[in-house]
Structures are given as C-alpha cells and as structure tokens.
Write a structure and sequence with these properties.
- Among the domains are: 55 residues, no CATH class; 111 residues, no CATH class; 90 residues, Winged helix-like DNA-binding domain superfamily/Winged helix DNA-binding domain (Arc Repressor Mutant, subunit A, Orthogonal Bundle), CATH 1.10.10.10.
- A hairpin with a 2-residue loop joins β6 and β7.
- It has a 9-stranded antiparallel β-sheet with strand order 19-20-21-22-23-24-25-26-27, with no helix packed on it.
- The longest helix has 29 residues.
- Helix content is 14%, strand content 31%.
- It contains 5 helices and 31 strands.
- 9% of the residues are buried.
Length: 458
C-alpha cells in the first residue's frame, strides 16, 4: 500500500531514487490506502482499501467517482437522469440504464424514461410511479390481435385490434369467444357481477355439467337452463309490477303453482297472470293443468279487475267462457265451443257479420238467385278421415254429412263461393245462405202471384 504526491523534490542522491521508487509504487497500486491521498489530481485513481472500491477523481478534482468493487463483484455508476443514464454507449449517451432514486432503476431511450422498477418491485411502462406489479401508461398490444388495451377510449380487445366496446371479444372459427373453466374443487364455472364499489354483488352466472344458472344476490333463485333444453324460472318472472297505473299494460308473474280445481292437486301447472290486476287494466294468462274436470287442459285467460273470460283447450273442445256466470260447462258458463270434430256451438245461437251502411258502397240489388239455387246439388257424404278413424277405432262412428261439393259449385258457375287454402277447397256457406234467402224471397213472390191469380179466376 503506497501513496505519493507525485512531486519529486530537489534533493541529493540516493533520496531522489527513493522518492522516485515510492511514486512508481503508488502508481502501480493506484494509490491504494484506507484514506484518500492527501494530494489529488483530476482523473487520478485511488484503490480505497478501507471500502474495497476502485475510485476515479472527477474532472473538476472535487470528488471521487466509485467505479467498482476491488474484489470484482460489483460495478458502480452514478447517472440518475434519463438524459444522462449511468450505463450507455459512447456514441448514444441518452439511451441506457439509470438510477432515478434510491432503490429504483430505469431504462431510457432517446433521453426519455421508458421502463421503471421501484423499491417495491412494481414495474411501470411509460409510468415513472407504478402502483401495481405491472402498471402501463398508454396502449398495450400482445401479438397483434391477441390482446389490445386502448387507453384512450378505456377499451380492451381480445382477438381484435380496435375494440369497439369496453370489452370486445372475437373468436376464430375453431373456438368460443369466451371460455370459463370449472373450479378444480367442484368443476363449476362461475362469473359474479358487482356494483362499482367492487364488493356489492348484483348477480352471478354459474355453469355445471348439466345446467346454466343465472341469479341475483340470492344464489338459489333465478333462471335455470338445463342441457335437455328445459328452462326453469324460480320463484317467478315479473315484467312490470302489480302497482301499474290505469291504462298501463301488465304481464305479472309466472309461478310453478299447484292447481287444486275439483279437489285434485297436481304439480305440473304453469300460470302467467296475477289476481291483483289494477282497475281499468287487463292481463292475459296461460294455465296447463290435469285434473278430474279438464284432462290435459290448456287455458288462456283474458282478465280485468271486474271479470275475465277463458279459452280452454282439451282433448274434447275449445271453450270460451265467462266465469262471472259460473265456472263449469254444466252450469252454462260456456259461451262458445269448438269441438274436436269441428262442430261449433254458440250459447245464444247468434252469429253476425259487419253490415253497417256507413261501411258500404256500390250497393245494388242482387238480382235473381233462382237458377243458382236450382243448380245446386245437395249431397250426402262422409269425410275420408272419419271413415279411416272408424275402421281403426271400436267406439268411433263416421258421421253422415250433408252439404255441397266445392268443385260442383265451380262447374255451375258459382266459383265465387269457393276459396282454396294449401290446395284444399272450401265453400263460403254464409254467402250460400244469403243466396238461398234471395231465392226464397223470389219463390215467395211467385207463390203470392199465383195465389193472387187463382183468386182473380174465382
């Protein structure tokens, strides 16, 4: 260990030789010593044996610059700005590694900080004060379209380079847009939706091997979609509410309710309506039930706060009734029925058609219908389907019908009474009845004239 002021004083030999040797030893050992040399010069080196650090005197000869540990373990640099990073290329001095603060490291390019690592291990990209393990300021792209973060519009895209929504997902032809894998503990895939506070739960979507379950805060309620295609709504579906104002439309609720009509309780019942219908409002409902009175019956109800009518369909008939009068067929509530064989029954025997003068124009007399009625061929017949059923069933008898044949009407020039739907011809019997009335009027006029002529002869 040797230090020297590197000044060879005027002196006699052999002192001069000794002074020169001491200076050479100091040069050879980089002025090593536990304390700094007392005489310093710009750019001189000093091996600080007290701290095992090689140091270099700065250009101003005002301080020492630590270069590296003398045991070769560490190197040192003191650059703390992006414009002059500690480690850089000689020909590109504003690009490299620097130390913006204690226990912090950063990388700069072109004199601007790009990547930062703070004392907590947080990494910032274009963010000098990262607050998370990875904190990115600006857009982020992973493998072109794999992942895109649009910081300008606060959007994230997966499979799309320009996301259109807060989350835009586009899948290729061989994958689903979003895949949620089941938990390892119970193989259940689950999504939970929260309010903006991040803790208040609003709803969840859960999937198992057999069902998709959508629910609110109550995990047992909601909509169940089974892999068989069945949908279950528990406990009810409500669109609008029971306090709807006058004039509002109302679809109230769906309940899986047992029907107890005729004293026979069942569990296979579906109801869409509510008894609490506000005044001046109406509702429509559907029921399916199977009891002692209606077998496999489907009911459609039209309801108001005062009264309601129902359309029932079972294996025997379609029934329209008004329960204000009573609630069974036997007690006369049936207003209109269409039976399984096509027969129609009207309680009041009243059928009508719009016939107001204010709705009509080009009104003229129908003229004689005598020849048309005379040309009618009234036939007796059976339907082929009835005959087929009669052959296949022991308790069914094909009914003998009476009427006209559509093609025969066309043959005698009355094609206007024939219509065709899906290749099957139909007869407008109501028009035929009017023609028959006109012909009857003409027959009555002829009879009256004949009777009058007989009286005159007497």
């Amino acid at each position: 260990m040797s230090q020297h002021d590197f000044n060879i004083a005027n002196q006699s030999f052999p002192g001069t030789r000794s002074d020169l040797n001491n200076a050479l030893v100091a040069l050879a050992t980089n002025s090593s010593g536990a304390a700094a040399p007392s005489t310093t010069n710009a750019f001189m080196s000093w091996a600080d044996s007290g701290n095992d650090i090689m140091k270099l005197r700065n250009e101003a000869n005002s301080d020492w610059i630590s270069l590296y540990k003398t045991d070769g373990v560490q190197q040192f640099a003191s650059g703390s700005t992006a414009g002059l990073p500690a480690f850089s290329k000689p020909d590109d001095v504003d690009t490299g590694i620097y130390f913006p603060a204690a226990d912090n490291i950063a990388i700069a390019t072109g004199g601007t900080g790009r990547l930062y690592v703070d004392s907590s291990g947080n990494v910032g990209l274009n963010n000098a004060t990262p607050s998370a393990t990875l904190d990115v300021a600006g857009d982020m792209v992973v493998d072109t379209n794999t992942l895109k973060v649009d910081s300008t519009n606060n959007r994230v895209g997966i499979g799309i380079s320009s996301p259109l929504q807060p989350l835009s997902v586009i899948a290729d032809s061989n994958a689903a847009a979003i895949g949620i894998h089941g938990r390892s503990s119970d193989n259940i895939g689950e999504m939970i939706f929260y309010a903006n506070d991040g803790t208040t739960q609003y709803g969840r979507l859960k999937t198992t091997s057999t069902v998709i379950h959508m629910s609110g805060t109550n995990n047992s309620n909601g909509i169940y979609i089974y892999n068989s295609g069945k949908v279950n709504i528990n406990p009810e579906l409500e669109v609008a509410n029971n306090s709807a104002a006058s004039g509002d439309s109302l679809i109230s609720s769906v309940n899986n309710t047992q029907n107890t009509s005729a004293g026979n309780s069942i569990s296979d019942c579906f109801i869409l309506f509510d008894a609490k219908v506000p005044s001046s409002n109406s509702a429509i409902g559907f029921k399916y039930y199977n009891n002692a009175f209606y077998s496999s019956n489907l009911e459609v109800g039209l309801y108001s706060s005062v009264r309601y009518s129902k359309l029932n369909r079972n294996c025997y008939h379609i029934l329209c009734e008004d329960p204000q009068y009573s609630n069974t067929l036997a007690n006369g509530s049936a207003l209109f029925m269409v039976y399984g064989d096509g027969d129609v029954v009207n309680k009041d025997n009243s059928y009508g058609s719009t016939s107001d003068l204010k709705l009509k124009t080009d009104i003229i007399d129908s003229g004689s219908q005598w020849d048309d009625i005379l040309n009618l061929k009234i036939r007796k017949y059976k339907f082929k389907s009835d005959v087929k059923t009669e052959k296949e069933s022991d308790d069914y008898v094909a009914i003998q019908q009476i009427g006209v044949i559509a093609q025969e009407l066309e043959d005698v020039g009355m094609g206007g009474l024939v219509s065709e739907v899906n290749g099957t011809k139909n007869v407008k019997y109501s028009v035929l009845y009017i023609k028959a009335i006109a012909a009857l009027q003409e027959a009555m006029n002829r009879i009256e004239k004949l009777e009058a002529g007989q009286k005159n002869k007497k």
